[in-house]
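As the next step, I needed to go through one protein, both as residues and as discrete backbone shape codes, included below for the reader:
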Amino acid sequence: MLIDGRTLNEGEVINTDICILGGGPAGITLANELNGNALDVALLDAGGEQYEAQVQELYEADSVPEYYPDPKISRLRFLGGASNHWGNNTSPFSPIDFEKRDWIGNSGWPISYDEMVPYYQKAAVYCQTGDDGYSSEHWLPLMGLNDLLSEAKFSRLGIAKASLPPTRFYVSHGKPLVESDNVKLYTYASVVDLEFDESDKRIISATFTSYNGKTHKVVADRFVLSMGGMENARMLLLFNEKYKNKIGNKNDIVGRYFMDHPTMNAAHLISDLPKLESMTRFEGQRFLVAFFELQEKVLKENELINLRMPVTSGTEYGMSDGISSFHILKNALIRGELPEDLFTHYGNLILDADMVIEAIARKQFDTKVFESAKNSAGFQIPMMVEQIPEKNNRIYLSSKKDKFGLNKLSIDWQVSERNRELMWRSLEVFARDMGITSIGRLRLLKERASRLFGDQMGFGHHHMGTTRMSDTPENGVVDKNCKVFDVGNLYVAGSSVFPTGSHVPPTLTISAMSARLAEHLKSGV
């Protein structure tokens, strides 16, 4: 059943067994898994069925680091959440992602990859990428790539899948909930408070407002916070201010270990191998992408992080060293500094002068000069970098408040020197395989580091880790069943519970974890 929260009478109280706070991929998966059950479920979403600017404004952060996007841009505050603008690129996490890695502090999940396998199968159905798995052994022969890395010592090919068009979770999976007898969806229901029984250590009710000055309550046996990787932390921090950190934050973990996936072109693959043009396969209502990654044994032996490395054709203009050096020199001069690798940049300007002129002509005069600009120059690698969990990367509360009087969030985030070092080391190992297999020559673009980790850095907008899962409250916010430590009936769903973020997009794992949580909730344990 779909209920517009704006139609409720002032002070109306909703009684239910399970209350889900948030209707993105995590909440929609969870509600569907609970649909048709004997349990009554209420799902509250802060928006409606479509985008609305005034609702979206509530995601605005007070402060973000330079170059980092404001969540007002990256998140969406209506049913389906960020799935309403994602690319639907999905892959499962790797077994090593769940393991404790001595060279990566704060790594290790309290559950294993094997425990996740059956839920990944369910999640693929929700993501509409098919139930035929992500096995390289299955897909690479069909793509004609099974022998591409036959002589490789360090790397392998992984598989990503996406539906066409991308799956919008509410559009695709909302109808069964609207028609449900036991699930009620409340729109325009923005949560503003929780009532916590400090002696019994249970949440009694959630208060929400519907943008019209009226407030309402939900009284439930169990509550699930599923507002996304940033808002889950923000709301828990708000509740903990009221209850003196007794809701899963006695060890100051809520909001910390914030991770994203930095994306960048940090290497060029110089190759004319035809098979590299066949790394994508369209199949009906979906497409598959093969990407390079490092073998797990290599990650362990060399103490590396993993990188998701698809390849795309590059032109002389797109891969120009001269254009990159021009920007680096210009930025350094503006700051009154000399860049590292000064003579390398001067040399690039001279050797690549035609492409620099091409860039100036395009920017200043909106015209193209050299036909050679569109010539093939090899392949770019728009890679996704695994970010290691670090305590000082965090979501915290600002003193500024939104229209409901709730503190806005602020973000401290960076890619640490340790993370950068591991990225370059991982690329160096991968480069060796390109030579061993005669695929080509991998050129690392270290001289571009100031821009790669600056104005050229992209983001997966994958917000993870802020309510991390752990065996103990000393190291996390929720236990292996996603229940908040020291609270009897509060759970968290979504990527905020991830202790590590892997090197692939998180939505498949978000959906899988939600299906796993649903099974736990249905068990009544």
